[in-house]
């Protein structure tokens, strides 16, 4: 384990040359304060907190102190936003400090989000609000706890400065870890400016460093596209299984390795509504929950367009057609696990289709429906059936079908309970819980709620140590969303 100045930087992206980025140090802030530090994420880069002066942590994580070996840069990219091409994007408020190789040979990007202006900032201030920084910091770890492909949170800093959105508000910086920050939009940037040789060079870089197993294949560019397609399908299948809405599925927010990325106006479904729109700015529902798989496919189509000089169009189309197959396979696998089943056949598909019709008709809390289902064979049927009081026979009919498949696999009630509680979370990052932590942080400089949520979300399937919560009953964090907060939306203003 290392101190900051002993990190093993291997900055591979910088080797592509300055057409791909702007070399740029972070803009210093006046009074940085370390709000939270994630030791589990620190272990990914072999960072040892005991070797660092605690007084300097905020200076490093705000960008005020430079890391030895870092080469901070703002990456160039463009992208399709809400279906329309925007040529002027790029890292306008974030910097890739560099890539660290850990003792296991894994590479991790270290990225500061909210680190000041770059040439890509388009006249904005290059900062991020503290409220959006809190949300991103918490949700990256929440998704990791749920077993969904995601970037990670290393640190959260308040800058001590005010920035202006609808009104003055505090700024924050999140230190993000990711296996790559190369996006679909990284390819679009050069494709749309008629620089196919730059697209080829970027593709070669991706294959060499992220997909080395295909480097010697004659059809390596097609295989690269296949891997990206599969990664994306698996990521979105994970979202759909846990009821996560990303909110801003622009092509510049899609990474090649299929990690959930750039958390903004996201939201977890509370009462089941397949048309849930978590982004208040998405007035047409382009990124509604039930549209996410199709949007993922559309984004992959746009990525495929950039590779047409490397892969025949019919081959790209064939790979794109595999997206739905791969998505459905992964989604069914995850849903079978949520139900404690292992046999996936036509009977299971019928069960699942009937389940989603049941959920759409009665709109129970999505997360808690599956959690409560774990206890329905051991006396917990009342908690499960409360949301179905208008037509309880609908639930009874579905449960009878479910029981037949459990019996077919000879699954004992105790085993079913074990499987479901290990697969269906007790805790998710509900928007109203995130807002409660934000309000305490902004109004009272009380960051304890951030830490409590982080503790629960890192291990969402387990009951926490109740002593650590003192007067705060952890069960309140697993309750159904109160009626007044149902369907809460968040805007893109960050």
UniProtKB/TrEMBL annotation:
<feature type="binding site">
    <location>
        <position position="183"/>
    </location>
    <ligand>
        <name>ATP</name>
    </ligand>
</feature>
<dbReference type="GO" id="GO:0030145">
    <property type="term" value="F:manganese ion binding"/>
</dbReference>
<keyword id="KW-0808">Transferase</keyword>
<keyword id="KW-0067">ATP-binding</keyword>
<comment type="similarity">
    <text>Belongs to the SELO family.</text>
</comment>
<keyword id="KW-0548">Nucleotidyltransferase</keyword>
<feature type="binding site">
    <location>
        <position position="262"/>
    </location>
    <ligand>
        <name>ATP</name>
    </ligand>
</feature>
<dbReference type="Pfam" id="PF02696">
    <property type="entry name" value="SelO"/>
</dbReference>
<keyword id="KW-0547">Nucleotide-binding</keyword>
<feature type="binding site">
    <location>
        <position position="176"/>
    </location>
    <ligand>
        <name>ATP</name>
    </ligand>
</feature>
<feature type="binding site">
    <location>
        <position position="93"/>
    </location>
    <ligand>
        <name>ATP</name>
    </ligand>
</feature>
<dbReference type="InterPro" id="IPR003846">
    <property type="entry name" value="SelO"/>
</dbReference>
<keyword id="KW-0479">Metal-binding</keyword>
<feature type="binding site">
    <location>
        <position position="126"/>
    </location>
    <ligand>
        <name>ATP</name>
    </ligand>
</feature>
<feature type="binding site">
    <location>
        <position position="90"/>
    </location>
    <ligand>
        <name>ATP</name>
    </ligand>
</feature>
<feature type="binding site">
    <location>
        <position position="125"/>
    </location>
    <ligand>
        <name>ATP</name>
    </ligand>
</feature>
<feature type="binding site">
    <location>
        <position position="92"/>
    </location>
    <ligand>
        <name>ATP</name>
    </ligand>
</feature>
<protein>
    <recommendedName>
        <fullName>Protein nucleotidyltransferase YdiU</fullName>
        <ecNumber>2.7.7.-</ecNumber>
        <ecNumber>2.7.7.108</ecNumber>
    </recommendedName>
</protein>
<feature type="region of interest" description="Disordered">
    <location>
        <begin position="465"/>
        <end position="494"/>
    </location>
</feature>
<keyword id="KW-0464">Manganese</keyword>
<dbReference type="GO" id="GO:0070733">
    <property type="term" value="F:AMPylase activity"/>
</dbReference>
<keyword id="KW-0460">Magnesium</keyword>
<dbReference type="GO" id="GO:0000287">
    <property type="term" value="F:magnesium ion binding"/>
</dbReference>
<feature type="binding site">
    <location>
        <position position="113"/>
    </location>
    <ligand>
        <name>ATP</name>
    </ligand>
</feature>
<feature type="binding site">
    <location>
        <position position="253"/>
    </location>
    <ligand>
        <name>Mg(2+)</name>
    </ligand>
</feature>
<comment type="function">
    <text>Nucleotidyltransferase involved in the post-translational modification of proteins. It can catalyze the addition of adenosine monophosphate (AMP) or uridine monophosphate (UMP) to a protein, resulting in modifications known as AMPylation and UMPylation.</text>
</comment>
<dbReference type="GO" id="GO:0005524">
    <property type="term" value="F:ATP binding"/>
</dbReference>
<feature type="active site" description="Proton acceptor">
    <location>
        <position position="252"/>
    </location>
</feature>
<feature type="binding site">
    <location>
        <position position="262"/>
    </location>
    <ligand>
        <name>Mg(2+)</name>
    </ligand>
</feature>
């Amino acid at each position: 384990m290392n101190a900051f100045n002993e990190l093993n930087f291997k900055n591979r992206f910088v080797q592509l040359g300055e057409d791909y980025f702007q070399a740029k140090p972070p803009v210093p802030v006046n009074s940085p304060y370390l709000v939270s530090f994630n030791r589990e994420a620190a272990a990914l880069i072999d960072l040892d907190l005991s070797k660092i002066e605690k007084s300097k942590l905020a200076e490093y994580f705000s960008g005020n102190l430079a890391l030895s070996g870092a080469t901070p840069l703002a990456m160039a990219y463009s992208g399709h936003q809400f279906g329309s091409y925007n040529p002027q994007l790029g890292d306008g408020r974030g910097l890739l400090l560099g890539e660290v190789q850990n003792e296991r040979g894994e590479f991790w990007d270290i990225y500061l989000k909210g680190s000041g202006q770059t040439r890509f900032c388009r006249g904005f201030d290059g900062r991020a609000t503290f409220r959006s920084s809190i949300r991103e910091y918490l949700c990256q770890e929440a998704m990791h706890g749920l077993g969904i492909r995601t970037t990670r949170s290393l640190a959260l800093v308040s800058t001590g400065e005010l920035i202006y959105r609808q009104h003055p508000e505090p700024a924050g910086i999140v230190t993000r870890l990711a296996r790559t920050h190369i996006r679909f939009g990284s390819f679009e940037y050069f494709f749309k400016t008629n620089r196919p040789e730059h697209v080829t060079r970027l593709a070669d870089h991706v294959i060499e460093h992220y997909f080395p197993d295909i480097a010697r294949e004659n059809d390596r560019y097609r295989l690269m596209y296949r891997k990206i397609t599969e990664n994306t399908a698996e990521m979105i299948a994970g979202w759909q299984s846990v009821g996560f809405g990303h909110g801003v599925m622009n092509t510049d927010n899609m990474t090649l390795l299929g990690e959930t990325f750039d958390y903004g106006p996201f939201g977890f479904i509370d009462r089941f509504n397949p048309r849930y729109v978590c982004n208040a700015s998405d007035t047409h529902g382009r990124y509604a929950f039930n549209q996410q798989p199709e949007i993922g496919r559309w984004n992959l189509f746009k990525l495929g367009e950039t590779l047409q000089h490397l892969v025949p169009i019919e081959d790209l189309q064939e790979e794109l057609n595999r997206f739905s197959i791969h998505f459905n396979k992964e989604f069914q696998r995850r849903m079978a696990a949520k139900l404690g089943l292992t046999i996936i056949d036509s009977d299971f598909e019928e069960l699942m289709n009937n389940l989603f019709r049941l959920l759409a008709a009665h709109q129970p809390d999505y997360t808690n429906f599956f959690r409560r289902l774990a206890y329905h064979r051991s006396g917990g049927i009342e908690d499960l059936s409360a949301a179905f009081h208008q037509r309880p026979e609908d639930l009874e009919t579905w449960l009878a079908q479910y029981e037949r498949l459990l019996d077919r696999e000879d699954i004992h009630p105790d085993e079913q309970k074990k499987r479901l509680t290990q697969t269906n979370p007790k805790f998710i990052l509900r928007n109203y819980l995130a807002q409660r932590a934000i309000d305490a942080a902004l109004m009272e400089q009380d960051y304890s709620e951030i830490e409590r949520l982080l503790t629960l979300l890192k291990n969402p399937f387990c009951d926490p140590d109740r002593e650590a919560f003192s007067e705060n009953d952890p069960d309140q964090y697993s309750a159904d969303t109160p009626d007044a907060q149902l369907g809460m939306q968040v805007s893109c203003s960050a």
